[in-house]
TrEMBL record, chains A, B, C, D, E, F:
Domain of life: Bacteria
Record keywords, A-Z: Isomerase
GO terms assigned for molecular function: allantoin racemase activity; amino-acid racemase activity
A Pfam family assignment: Asp_Glu_race
EC number: 5.1.99.3
Protein name: Allantoin racemase
Keyword Transport attributed: no
Species classification: Bacteria, Bacillati, Actinomycetota, Actinomycetes, Micrococcales
Length: 239, 239, 239, 239, 239, 239
């Protein structure tokens, strides 16, 4: 299948890194390409950024439709523009939150999210209620690193480990979800360190979860429900 | 106080009508002005339209902040851009859904929403979960008129009456909320007709609820919580 | 409009103070008067007190109806007699809890209540479930002062500040609600101290919220739903 | 054990009938007596009636405490005064709703309540949320007979049967609860008729459930939790 | 009535102790006998053990039906095989969890469970959701003793006391439930020690709650709903 | 990867058909084998059947562990033995319900399940609460065919279509899930017929969802959380 990754920020710096990561998760027979936004923000850490990013994301959805892709991954944990996108394209579209959280639900009782900054907490709380799964969320922890600070890999991993360990030992988390799609290439190391510490607890990588979700949904032949995601009526739109 | 109404669509046709309506609800000492969007869509009937409208709405929020307004009403029942707006301005900001629904909660057990098209149902269902009030929503009915079709006032009132009556007699609604801010100037007639039919049931006008909500909040001296609506970190944004 | 305040305790000592406070919150064109109870208790700090106060409150509701008031505020955070009152009068009736909590919901994600004594905690927990908003309540804290001890203003403010600060820093509260209508004239000072401490968090005064709620509801022309608050059938009643 | 039944209405007409009924449910070694109210209403069919009945009920609770009874049954389905009563007496106190509903939960998935008048529906809906069991309530049906009309036994049974049958066949009820403690001596006949109609569905009699609940709780040696039902602080009370 | 106790483990060592305990809770006129399993496990501390125990439990249910017992208590807090059993027998069947938890709900706001090992926590969390009462569960604590280690009575009581006290003082529990039916004969001592420590908090013994529940249900003449617990269609079964 | 399918019934008749179906859903590089039970029942249509099937399923789990499989699919919609299985094997284990329902959640607002017999309704209702997703379940419909009657493919498809259509047109379902893993090879035809009828609504095949779920989870390197699914302590077990 053909997966189009939309990196919902401006600038192409991340594209190669993201494609490499996504290909690492993809199965045989899946081709991946990625685009960033022509209009949007340098990173998404608030509902304000999400709102500004959405039109640029939807531009890319329209292109993806024209290009006949089989699935779209908007690589941000806040699922920006995802529900709007489902209204205008007939293939599975996911962000980082929904597939990672739903996947985690079948591996443990309480889900613990470890994310970047306190700024995104309310967004994640209201997403859990929106999706109707808030009674499975045990903890949302932050590592106090801005998205653009995730370049410092060692600090990121160390803080993810500390926060994960504390959430587990406080009995607030049975399965963990990385709360930012920018936390690339650390999930295995994090699981190993937790296992060494005596906690055999799974950690879900949102990028990996999104890609396998899209591959699975594609194989199932399913698509956004038109009674939920109705096609927007034709009208003047200028943006 | 000074209330800025943002009509989240392109084109100025509705402005006079909206200002007139809003002033009808406003209390003494409240001044009202209204703006529409420089970029956006002709109407909002889907999450797609909401997403395209948000940046234009946020442009207007930035202006409102500069103008030092005391409260902002984004006149659409889907609360487009409202949560993002709260991150960047220090005064109360509401859309049509939240104040009308919360107001209705203190007047009856089950809330019935009567809205325009089936397209918006899922949006309203997920809003009710997002706000954590879904166990109080008894019914969401549609009158099958597009927003731009609401010009036909008599048809609108007749269908609102039919749907409201049926929801009440099915025991699905104890208090009604008009599910579109374009349903202007009909709430009193609707309540009268329901009363004549033997149903003394209140109907909440979302425009009226929003204006009185802003006036009340302003007098209470409250503002968006900065632990929920944190100011977006500075970064490059081009849209 | 004409608002009747019912101070649901025996004795007139509080009346002047309450009227002054309420007038401070009321808008232009609102006239306020207040009555206490002919039968009831010296204060309300338990369901037992609430039950003993209710008949005296309903006596005053009957009077208010005769006097043709436009709204009634039963000034107690436990909403004593409020639902019964709505069955016998056609204008908005609120206590302290419902308008303050519903108002708070549009200003932050998690609501923190700071109240007087542990005695009222279960009452507040079950009210939050009764109203269907318990998933938005993040914390209920007590300052361990009896209602009649609130006279010691400085101690009250200091303890409110301590408890509020701790609830915020524990990430249990994004918006605060004063959990007793006897906590008069402190909300602004409390918000200032929290802001100075780096927490720009709104605090809702239940008296102010009730008055603005009544003014808003009055302007909206709404009233208790008769399918929820049905008029009690005629029968012998002797109390 | 010694059970005190409080018939929360004025007038003694029902006492003998109630005592007879209660003794029919009571186990060996249980003695039963009953009192009605010195002040209150002729029946309870609204929150207004409940509020007027509460003080008279609490008078009887104080007496019951002096008399050293082992349990108290306030024989009304709305649980009037029950929570307040638990604050002032150290033995189990129940009304009709709580024991019947909790008992029903272990016999079927969805609980259907069949009660007297629409007036009490909202009261029952909010009780189910207050107790946190609303997701188990499948239907609340009414037979449109006032409490005082239950004397017409045949009409009552016929309507109970019709409503029960319809709730079951609509898949809204797997276990039924009689929603009024005045529906005396009909539960067995109702179960028989439903069984004859091919529906082997249990029906819970609220009086029977209350008595067996009190006997069970007494044998378990439990009492109202003082961290939930704290003793009301001493103060002036005149009612 | 005739109660059959099914001790859902292999080996008869516990039978005499259990019968003695059960008879201590039973009312006059109740006869009790007990059986253990012919196939199963030495104790139940996981869903794995529950699954292995279920067929042996159902063997005993079939026998109980033949023997015409009036009620069955499967003495394990995880309610193993209970729902399956209700499909094949017409009398009340309970385990340890459901009657104890439902009983506790009428004595305090937040229920605290004190159980044996962390292994059973997820099982108890998902049971509370299955039964729809999770919003009443305030805390689940463990004493870190395996079921077979409960022989050391003093250690068990001391740890139950420590955990109960901590749950109460953390405001996480208003009423306690012993989370293992093997915690025999300690509930009174535990309540006494908590009372001495100034906490007048009830503790529910699951064995006592189950027996009184069965006696009450038997007297109510109720049975498992056949629209919830439908008789399994006939088919080949070999196990 | 190597997927072991456990057909949780006795008899090998279904094995070839199931393997063929599963291989149809599996991706490249996935090998599939299947086993049925040595002890169990001819089909699973009740909690009784589930309980009798569980030990035979766990026998096969032990074998699967020895064989070093990478994932296990217990092909029954009631998820029999699945949670117990996760306690004793380190690879993903799913039944039919969990992956299908969680997959459906990202394609539409309200999930509609169409299953075989009314017998399984309560089981499905309580599963939805156990998993904490009941607020997303809009309808559970039955086609009134026993599992063993699904051989009559045309009748099955016709009834699935009727029930699905009705659920959609009643606004009770936005996305459908086939509620029995025996409904093989019909999902595409069902989606086509619904599309022809003007309803572009996805239908999730539980077998397909389980296989793609296992493949995805395997690639994510995750496993059952040991803080939820703790290894059962060693003890005597004879069954």
């Amino acid at each position: 299948m053909h997966i189009r990754v939309i990196v919902p920020v401006i600038g192409d710096d991340l594209l190669d890194r993201v494609i490499e990561e996504v290909q690492g998760w993809a199965g045989p027979g899946t081709t991946v390409d990625a685009v960033s936004l022509k209009r949007g923000t340098a990173s998404i850490e608030s509902e304000y950024d999400e709102a500004l990013a959405a039109p640029g994301i939807l531009d890319r959805i329209v292109e993806a439709k024209v290009d006949g892709v089989d699935g779209v991954f908007v690589t941000c944990f806040g699922d920006p523009g995802v529900h709007a996108a489902r209204e205008i394209i007939d293939v599975p579209v996911v962000g980082g939150y929904e597939p990672a959280m739903l996947t985690a639900m079948s591996f443990g009782e309480k889900i613990g999210i470890v994310t970047v900054l306190p700024n995104v907490l309310p967004m994640l709380h209201s997403l859990s209620r929106r999706y109707g799964i808030d009674n499975r969320v045990g903890a949302i922890r932050v590592i106090d690193l801005p998205v653009l600070g995730l370049e410092d890999r060692q600090t990121m991993v160390d803080r993810l480990y500390e926060q994960s360990l504390d959430a587990i030992e406080s009995n607030d988390a049975d399965v963990l979800v990385l709360g930012c799609t920018g936390m690339l290439g650390v999930v295995q190391e994090l699981m190993n360190r937790l296992t060494e510490a005596g906690h055999r607890v799974p950690v879900v990588d949102p990028t990996g979860a999104a890609i396998t979700w899209l591959e699975g949904s594609h194989r199932l032949g399913i698509f956004p429900s038109r009674s939920t995601y109705m096609p927007p009526p034709a009208k003047e739109r200028s943006i």
